[in-house]
């Protein structure tokens, strides 16, 4: 790992992250041997489009020796307390003013009991000597970490003064891991929500930062351009939502396989079902490969390859599709739901009908 990081010019920056963590007491250097311990492999991950951390260590708690359990295999994950992405986005769309933020180093604000830290050891990235550290904070990548963060936030939001309970109740439904996505009805509520949310989270040593909105105010970091929101894109200027279609780095070759079709389908993240009619054809083709009992890397027949290539040639156009973020719903709005069940698929459609006064 060190040699690869050195070749890519990342080793210096990678070490700097660990140095910062040591100063912040996120990790601690240890000298003593302990037979009851576990070491986590790690590697640097670079995110050039990140507005905060460009390089960060990723620890693999699922790594295992042949025939043995990994750390994640042995840990109790805890119940899933995380809100569903479609539910969060639906609530977000109900407000005229959308707001998003994230918690700075969220997992690293939670401490690990000293008697458990030896199971979170790792080797410092150096070629010359063996230097051992261990984590003193919750580690991203450990299977129990999402529960621990969600439980900590839930506990914090349950124990607020009575005057803050309305904002706290709203925050309970606004978090997806460390991302906060919510909204308000007007500019006055916008400032109040941001100030109160910051204050409430600060009592748990959580820094709610990177505030973004379609309406500018003095506490907002960004109110123009396009930003990421729970895996989709939010155009702040036009206040519209778009799906991310990440197919640029998926190179097509002459041999189309079941593995390639699956990879192509997975490049389109569409939690709201905006593109379901366009993403359904390759899924049906993939289903047909299973019916034919083809292996992952077998050459596919023409009646599968040709329609897939036609779809692939047009898939980039999906990134141009956008929908209004704000979905106005009031007492005069009716929801009508239809269930369609053709031979090869079934789908549920929901329409919101707005009753208006007749023209005079």
Question: Could you outline the blueprint of secondary structure elements for this entry?
Answer:
Elements: H1 2-7, H2 11-23, E1 27-30, E2 42-46, E3 55-59, H3 71-74, H4 85-93, E4 97-103, E5 121-123, E6 132-135, H5 145-158, H6 165-172, E7 175-176, E8 179-184, H7 187-202, E9 208-213, E10 226-229, E11 232-235, E12 240-242, E13 244-245, H8 258-266, E14 268-269, H9 276-291, H10 302-314, E15 322-324, E16 333-340, E17 347-354
Antiparallel strand pairs: 1-6, 2-3, 4-8, 4-9, 5-6, 7-8, 10-11, 11-12, 12-15, 13-14, 16-17
Protein name: Reverse transcriptase domain-containing protein
Domain Reverse transcriptase: 86-195
InterPro entries: DNA/RNA_pol_sf, Retrotrans_Pao, Rev_trsase/Diguanyl_cyclase, RT_dom
Named CATH architecture of the largest domain: 2-Layer Sandwich
Question: How many distinct folded domains?
Answer: 3
Number of helices: 10
Number of strands: 17
- Give the C-alpha Rg: 24 Å
Major β-sheet strand ordering = 7-8-4-9
Order of helices and strands: HHEEEHHEEEHHEEHEEEEEHEHHEEE
CATH fold-level label of the largest domain: Alpha-Beta Plaits
Keywords:
single chain, 360 residues, alpha+beta, HIV Type 1 Reverse Transcriptase, Chain A, domain 1, Alpha-Beta Plaits, 3 domains, four-stranded antiparallel sheet, 10 helices
Tell me what you see in this structure:
This protein is of the alpha+beta class. It has three domains: 1-79 and 111-144, HIV Type 1 Reverse Transcriptase, subunit A, domain 1 (HIV Type 1 Reverse Transcriptase, Chain A, domain 1); 86-105 and 145-241, Alpha-Beta Plaits (2-Layer Sandwich), CATH 3.30.70; 246-329, no CATH class. Helices cover 30% and strands 21% of the residues. The protein has ten helices and 17 strands. The strands form six sheets. Strands 7-8-4-9 form a four-stranded antiparallel beta sheet, sandwiched between helices. It has a four-stranded antiparallel beta sheet with strand order 10-11-12-15, with no helix packed on it. A three-stranded antiparallel beta sheet has the order 1-6-5. A hairpin with a 2-residue loop joins β10 (226-229) and β11 (232-235). α5 packs antiparallel against α6 (165-172), α8 runs antiparallel to α9 (276-291) and α9 runs antiparallel to α10 (302-314). The longest helix has 16 residues, at 187-202. 20% of the residues are buried. The mean pLDDT is 89.
């Amino acid at each position: 790992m060190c040699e690869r990081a050195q070749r890519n010019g990342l080793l210096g920056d990678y070490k700097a992250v660990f140095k910062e963590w040591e100063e912040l007491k996120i990790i601690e250097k240890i000298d003593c041997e302990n037979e009851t311990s576990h070491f986590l492999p790690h590697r640097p991950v670079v995110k050039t489009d990140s507005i905060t951390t460009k390089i960060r260590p990723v620890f693999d708690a699922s790594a295992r020796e042949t025939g043995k359990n990994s750390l994640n295999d042995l840990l109790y994950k805890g119940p899933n307390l995380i809100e569903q992405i479609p539910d969060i986005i639906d609530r977000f769309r109900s407000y005229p003013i959308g707001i998003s933020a994230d918690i700075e180093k969220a997992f690293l604000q939670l401490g690990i009991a000293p008697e458990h830290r030896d199971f979170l050891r790792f080797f410092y990235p150096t070629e010359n000597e063996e230097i051992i550290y261990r984590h003193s904070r919750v580690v991203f990548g450990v299977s129990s970490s999402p529960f621990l963060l969600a439980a900590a936030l839930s506990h914090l939001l349950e124990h607020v003064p009575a005057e803050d309970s309305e904002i706290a109740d709203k925050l309970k439904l606004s978090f997806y891991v460390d991302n906060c996505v919510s909204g308000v009805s007007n500019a006055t509520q916008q400032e109040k929500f941001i100030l109160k949310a910051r204050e409430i989270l600060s009592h748990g040593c959580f820094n709610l930062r990177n505030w973004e909105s379609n309406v500018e105010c003095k506490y907002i970091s960004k109110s123009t351009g396009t930003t990421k929101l729970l895996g989709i894109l939010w155009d702040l200027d036009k206040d519209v939502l778009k799906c991310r279609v990440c197919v640029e780095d998926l190179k097509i070759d002459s041999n189309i396989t079941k593995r390639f079709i699956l990879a192509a389908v997975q490049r389109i993240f569409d939690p709201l079902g905006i593109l379901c009619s366009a993403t359904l054809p390759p899924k049906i083709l993939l289903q047909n490969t299973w019916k034919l009992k083809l292996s992952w890397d077998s050459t596919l027949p023409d009646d599968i390859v040709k329609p897939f290539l036609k779809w692939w040639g047009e898939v980039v156009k999906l990134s141009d599709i956008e929908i209004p973020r704000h979905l106005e719903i009031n007492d005069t709005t009716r929801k009508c739901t239809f269930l369609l069940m053709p031979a090869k698929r079934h789908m549920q459609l929901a329409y919101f009908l707005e009753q208006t006064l007749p023209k005079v």
